Amino acid sequence: MVDKLDDIDRAILKILQQDAKTVAKSIAEELGLTKTPVYERIKRLEQDGFIKKYVAILDKEKIEESITVFSFVSLETQKGALMDDFFEKVKEYPEVAECFVVGGEFDFLLKVVVKNLDAYYNFAKFKIASLPTIGGVKSAFVLNEVKNDTVFPLL
C-alpha cells in the first residue's frame, strides 16, 4: 500500500476526476508514458482506496424538478452514542445527499434534495425533527447554484 501520492499519481487522479471514463491509453499519451504502467497505477490507486468508486454525475435539471436545502441540525446533547444514532438514521434517508459533523452553533449540516417545499416540510417534520435527540433544525433554501464541483483539489 502506498501512503503518499507522487506527481504521476496526482496527474492521473486529476485526469480521472475530470472524466472517469478516460482510458489508460489516453492518460498515458497525455502524460508521455506507456499504457501498462498507467493501468497498473490506476489499479493500485483503486486497491489502496485513493479511488473509492466511479460515478455518473447527472444533470438534475433534465431529470426532474427538485430543490436543495441545507439543514443545520443541533442535538439536545452531544453524547457519542446519540451522535452515532443520528448518523445511522440519516444514512437511511434518501433525501440526505450529504451529512457533515460541524463545529460552532450546530452539530450537523445536511444537504437535502427533495421535490418541493411540501416534501421538505414533511422530511423536516416527520424524519429529522421527530428524532428524540434533536434540539433544533434551521434551513437555508438554495435559490441558485453558482458552483457545484465534484473535483477534489489535489493540493
Task: Give your account of this protein's structure.
By secondary structure, the protein is α+β, with helices and mostly antiparallel strands. It is 40% helix and 19% strand. The protein is built from 6 helices and 4 strands; from the N terminus they run H-H-H-H-E-H-E-E-H-E. It has a 4-stranded antiparallel sheet with strand order 2-3-1-4. Strand 2 (96-101) and strand 3 form a beta hairpin. The protein is elongated, with a radius of gyration of 20 Å. The mean pLDDT is 92.
| Largest sheet properties | 4 strands, antiparallel
Strand order of the largest sheet: 2-3-1-4
Low-pLDDT residue spans = none
- Give the helix proportion (percent range): 40-55%
The shape is elongated
SSE pattern, N- to C-terminal: HHHHEHEEHE
Strand content: 15-25%
Radius of gyration: 20 Å
| Class by SSE composition | alpha+beta
Question: How are the SSEs ordered, and which strands pair?
Answer:
Elements: H1 7-18, H2 24-31, H3 35-47, H4 60-63, E1 67-75, H5 80-92, E2 96-101, E3 108-114, H6 117-128, E4 134-141
Antiparallel strand pairs: 1-3, 1-4, 2-3
Give the structure's gist in a few sentences.
By secondary structure, the chain is α+β, with helices and mostly antiparallel strands.
Question: Can you give keywords for this protein?
Answer:
single chain, 155 residues, alpha+beta, 6 helices, elongated
